Amino acid sequence: MHPVIVEFDLFGLLAKPFSLHSYGLLIAAGFLSAMMLSKRQGEREGEDPDQIVDLAFYLLLSGLVGARIVFILTKWQDYVRNPAEIVMFWRGGLVFYGGFIGAGLFMAYYCRRHRINFFKYADIYIPYLAMAHAFGRLGCLAAGCCFGKVTEASWGIIFPLNSMVHQAHVNMGVIGLSEMPHAIHPTQLYEAGAEICMFLILVGMRKYKRFHGQLFLIWLSAYPVIRSFIEMFRGDKVRGLGVFGTPLSTSQFISVVVALVAVYLYFYLRRQRTKA
């Protein structure tokens, strides 16, 4: 766990040292890689590469806003006490589903306004979204957030003192303040690995694609299953258990909604193909 890569104060010119956070760096690396690969794929499919890049930046901004809003809602009481931390997303504190929904809504608006095919663009972006998400989960590992439950498995990992895991285990009363936390499931790596697999599958299936929206639909169907399964091994309470009186976490509840959307889109796209 290395939440901060480097700190510097410009030889004493800064009152507070500037910190380069691993989480923010990996998010940026994932986004830039995804943007460049999407641009190249868009060119191959006859789309304007500049429009691909422009939309990617808008999607990043709308995604960050959505991801931050959902995270703040899960920890509203903490942010009421420290409102200045609302904008400090580089320290962690983004909910992927919030980002996906925010970016998706903006993309629907953008495509409608510019009269471009939403599903064609979704297929261009979605494999690289999976790849960028894997970068983000590695950022979570470095920051120490989105951690798993205690495990005796040989692949369990131990976070250092003063990490989020350590604080959680102290609050649970399972360790003392000066004791090391227990080994936990590396849920960040579980999801990063699953997303890399999804990236490879989607890229491999591109040449077999039969209609616009097919790759997007595959991801939309698979990710809720992956996420709901991994949620069972998560140990952080920020997930918001018991949504609307159900035993589901926030992400599991949204996964159900996303899965239903995937079912609807399957029949919608199939009907559109029949009409064509």
Summarize the structure.
With 276 residues, this protein is mostly helical. It is built from nine helices and two strands, in the order ββααααααααα. Helix 2 packs antiparallel against helix 4.
Q: What report would you give on this structure?
A:
With 276 residues, this protein is mainly alpha-helical. Helices cover 62% and strands 3% of the residues. The protein has 9 helices and 2 strands, in the order E-E-H-H-H-H-H-H-H-H-H. It has helices at 22-44, 49-74, 76-81, 96-114, 118-143, 164-172, 187-205, 214-231, 250-275, and strands spanning 4-8, 18-21. A two-stranded antiparallel sheet has the order 1-2. The protein is globular. The mean pLDDT is 87.
User: Which structural class is indicated by helix and strand composition?
Assistant: mainly alpha
Listing every helix as H and every strand as E from the N terminus to the C terminus, the arrangement reads EEHHHHHHHHH
Strand order across the largest sheet: 1-2
How would you state the average pLDDT, rounded? 87
Give the N-to-C terminal Cα separation: 53 Å
Tally of helical segments: 9
Q: Quick one: overall form?
A: globular
